[in-house]
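Inputs:
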Amino acid sequence: MNETACMPTGPRPHGATPDDGYGALLRDAHAAGPRRGTHLQIIERDDGFVSIEDAYRYFTRPDEWLPVERQAVALATGRVLDIGCAAGRHMLALTGDHETVGLDPSPGAVAVAREQGLDVRIGTVTEPGDVGTFDTLLMLGGNLGLLGSREHAPDVLDSLTRLARPDARLLAIGHDPHTAAPEHRAYHQRNRECGRMPGQVRMRVRYKTWTSEWFDRLLLSPDELRHLLTGSAWTLQTATRSPGTGFYLAELTCNP
Amino acid sequence: MNETACMPTGPRPHGATPDDGYGALLRDAHAAGPRRGTHLQIIERDDGFVSIEDAYRYFTRPDEWLPVERQAVALATGRVLDIGCAAGRHMLALTGDHETVGLDPSPGAVAVAREQGLDVRIGTVTEPGDVGTFDTLLMLGGNLGLLGSREHAPDVLDSLTRLARPDARLLAIGHDPHTAAPEHRAYHQRNRECGRMPGQVRMRVRYKTWTSEWFDRLLLSPDELRHLLTGSAWTLQTATRSPGTGFYLAELTCNP
């Protein structure tokens, strides 16, 4: 009998592919041929709230997207960077007129995107590597949440500025937490009591035995975004809400 | 700023309805009108493996079941006890010829079953309350797993004996762990190294902010079941496998 083996171990990063349960999910879904309901990941919030996300969303076609996501892709011009591109669904929809580069921190996601013929590099918004500068920066699929927190957002905005060519635009999909179901309001209130923005969500994702590290995703309203941009090079020009959802398309311009 | 509120709390039983996340899931699914993919619960194994179960399974009709489940219901005779009946899907399929009582530990599940006109009491196989004796004992939907472990099984079998009338039959759906996907084999091997039966699965269920206590569910082959029955009043008469799945219908008779 092996005493160590008998201790409950609890969730932990997988030994072979640390912190890339997300990549494993995308690889598995891609290999199986993406269909709804077959590959699901778990999103665990730090108060114990659990929800489920279907990997199929990472393989959807434009006609399955929210209109604001289609609109964002249609507005892209020039050299385009898709930040947090996952398997590259938005890049696939960009026509050949654009030179498009994708960034994602997940080796598994990058592998799946490359299998689809896309130019995707391992990197994050604050550690993009040597990708150059862009006319359009995309943060789609809710990736405005990569702002992370009130404290982290300036680093993200500064990095975006370094990636921006003159007259660059940032097209980002945000999620307004103030439209959320009542069951989430206690979480927002706890954040307020802790001096955080209400929509700062500390979460990790789980898939099979893989568990990511905890990270922060920032849900914020267009007004909160405008306030957060103070002192940065970025200006919110328009926020187009997606009716019946909390999502909106934010168009920002850069004046460094 | 409230320091206590800022501590990560992690999963915990919900204050208002401790350990009845399962009941909340069934109540929510029933209230919404059961459909596939709308209400999901998370099953978390003690090694961190997570999987997802669709609450729709608790509201399926006989034509959606495995044939062995239909067969079990067709074999029921006399006064019937459905142990771990959930929302009562098997009880609903039993014709009016039977007096049928259901048992479930979840107040939420019992409430949903009662809304469907069923005689369901709060209780478990080892704490059934004053329900009398039965000609047929049902442990369907994989509920043979309520045997729990090698150590717990004798208590379950003794309780079943006390619930059994002369010539009573136990009809139970088991799950053979030796048919499982390779990703589960390390878990079975760890169990063996700890002196446990390979299919003893320590798990808890999570739904939204609710988290159950940890409990053991015993997956075992018909041969392992036969061995486990030694010294009990129960004899395995037949084990009918469900092709392409790990499930089987076990028919047991009682000779106290």
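Chain A touches chain B through 33 residues (CB under 8 Å). Flag for discussion at group meeting.
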